[in-house]
Every structure is written in structure tokens, then in C-alpha cells.
Amino acid sequence: MENRLEHALNIHFMDGSTIKVLFPSQTEDRYKRKLMREELLKNRMLMIEGDGEIRFIPVENIKYMSGYPAAELADAGVIKGAHFSEDIEGACEAPKVLDTRNASRRSFG
After folding, report:
1. What is the pTM of this model?
2. Whether the Cβ atoms of residue 25 and residue 8 lie closer than 8 Å to each other
């Protein structure tokens, strides 16, 4: 059976550098994925085996990570359907919504 590299993990470090890790699916079992996340947080170390080596990456050196593709059945606590923006000013603005309450009482003159 061939292990296809069907997932990608972009690791963005505090120093501004980034690495991309391609890997096969690790498990379809949601409970096992939960255990893997808990182990990562408990050890404060991301451990990746590949290309004949193992890398130990301290969580404190990681600014953020992004994984692809997103899981179809994301776990509880995951915000779904989001849009990311690098524009901090635009991201902080609330969408402009027309307030139609009591519209008949407004004077426009």
C-alpha cells in the first residue's frame, strides 16, 4: 500500500521563517487525533519523522501552523467557515449592516 503525501502542514516560526511538511494521513480516528493534539500540548514539542530523520520543534518557537486540507468533520472548538486576512485594519472592522429598525421615524431632510 502506498502512503500518499496528501496533507500539508505549514509551520511559521517566531523568527519569520516557514517550513512546509507533506505527509500521509495519520489516522481517520477522531479520538486518536485528539490524543495526538493532547500529547503535543503536554510535551510542548512537535515531533516529525521523515526523510530519514526526526525533528523536534519546541512549541514556543512556533508562531502559528496551518494545515491542509481542513478536516471535513472538524472537532468541537474549531471555528468553521472563516476567512483569513493579512489586513489587520480591515479584519477588525465590523461589517456594515443597514439598521432598518424604526426606519419610518427617521428624518432625512
Report:
1. 0.68
2. no
